[in-house]
Structure formats: C-alpha cells, structure tokens
Amino acid sequence: MKTFEFVVQDKEGIHARPAGILVNAIKGCSSKVDIENKGKKVDGKRLMAVMSLGVKSGETIVVTAEGDNEAADADAIMAVLKENL
After folding, report:
1. pTM higher than 0.85
2. Distance, CA of 9 to CA of 43 (rounded, Å)
3. pLDDT tens digits, residue range 40-84?
4. Which of 24, 31, 37, 84 could be disulfide-bonded to 67 (CB atoms 3.0-4.6 Å)?
5. Sign of the CA dihedral running 56, 28, 77, 38
6. List 6, 15, 36, 42, catalytic entry
7. Is-catalytic flag, 67?
C-alpha cells in the first residue's frame, strides 16, 4: 500500500474539471485508489464520489494506492495533482 498527502492549491478546490481529470487518470491505474478528506474515504475512480468530498483550497487529501503497480500509480496520480490542483 502506498499512501501520500497532497494539499490542494486550486483556489476553487476540487471542482468538476480537475475532478474529471483526476478520475480519468486514476481509471488508467491498475491499483485500487482511495481518496480521503476529513475522515471520508471514497473510490478515486468514481467522479461523483470524488466531488462529494467537497475539498476546498488549502485542504489536505490522503491518496492510497493498493495493488501490484501501486508505487508507479501513486507517482502518476501525484503528477496529475501537482499539474491540475
């Protein structure tokens, strides 16, 4: 299991456009990916679930990748987060 934290920098938080980009990137991963905010954990491959977290700017999310390719998947997700959020 590979886990990392990310502080959202986008001034609008995780809204529709970046959530869609993030979910599409996670769907390309072979690992199971969960995203957690304020104690609520959701499947990272489900757009509405990710948006339901209501992540605001400056909040920290915890991303967990679990599977055969978890390290590479976590790195890829981190890159998408840095580029889009």
Report:
1. yes
2. 21
3. 999 999 999 999 999 999 999 999 999 999 999 999 999 999 999
4. 31
5. positive
6. 15
7. no
